[in-house]
Design brief:
Structural class: alpha+beta
Number of strands: 9
Order of helices and strands: EHEEEHHEEEEEHHH
Distance between the termini: 34 Å
Oligomer: single chain
Number of helices: 6
């Protein structure tokens, strides 16, 4: 079962992740890519969870602000470039080589001489469409069952005004309701062992939208 992690335990790892991603942004700049990173979802709201006594993770968005046309036209190259630089920067903090999943890159920190994972952080590559809404870079492996990989931008559902909704929910004293429902959702998805499409960032957005709609309706 998931539970909220104490804030003091998260602080050290936030500092390590910030150090790694600052280096990544500097190295991307040398390639003409302007990017910025943001701690998102539960990690930005002191709602980090862990399953029992297992490891916990933090979620970051690496937003591409500007890049040479060659990267916009070749999303595989964009993700591969970021992955290589992330591995280079994360290695300085003793993280292992990152894993390339459908929606993010994951850097793992292990216990000394043991395979058990101590901590991990996920980096989603994002950009904004013409309407200013965030979209994630998705790597569909073996797309259509033909052994071909597909790289596409997918808009993040209803993410454009989450900050404003959070502000109102807090002002109305509903934040504990959001926290409790967030943990419930995490445990629901945990029970669906085949569900691989709900990272913490997406569950956080879903939860905020659900509680906001319940008390205030759509806006």
């Amino acid at each position: 079962m998931f539970r909220i992690v104490d804030e003091a335990e998260c602080k050290r790892y936030r500092l390590d992740c910030s150090s790694v991603l600052k280096k990544v942004c500097l190295m991307l700049k040398e390639k003409g890519i302007s990017a910025q990173f943001t701690l998102v979802g539960s990690g930005a709201r002191n709602m980090v969870t862990r399953n029992g006594d297992g490891p916990f993770d933090l979620d970051y968005n690496l937003e591409i602000i500007k890049a040479p046309e060659e990267y916009w036209n070749n999303l595989r190259s964009l993700k591969d470039t970021i992955r290589i630089l992330l591995d280079k920067a994360a290695g300085l903090k003793c993280f292992s080589e990152s894993q390339d999943s459908t929606s993010c890159l994951t850097a793992l920190l292990h216990f000394k001489d043991e395979p058990a994972i101590k901590f991990k952080f996920d980096v989603a590559i994002v950009s904004r469409n013409s309407k200013g809404k965030l979209r994630r870079l998705i790597h569909n492996k073996n797309a259509w069952g033909l052994g071909m990989d597909q790289y596409v931008w997918n808009e993040i559902p209803d993410s454009h005004n989450v900050a404003q909704k959070v502000k109102r929910l807090k002002a109305e004293g509903l934040w504990l309701t959001v926290r409790d429902r967030y943990v419930d959702r995490k445990n629901t998805y945990l029970s669906r062992w085949l569900d691989k499409d709900h990272p913490s960032f997406i569950i956080y957005i879903e939860t905020v939208n659900e509680i906001y709609y319940k008390y205030f309706g759509l806006v």
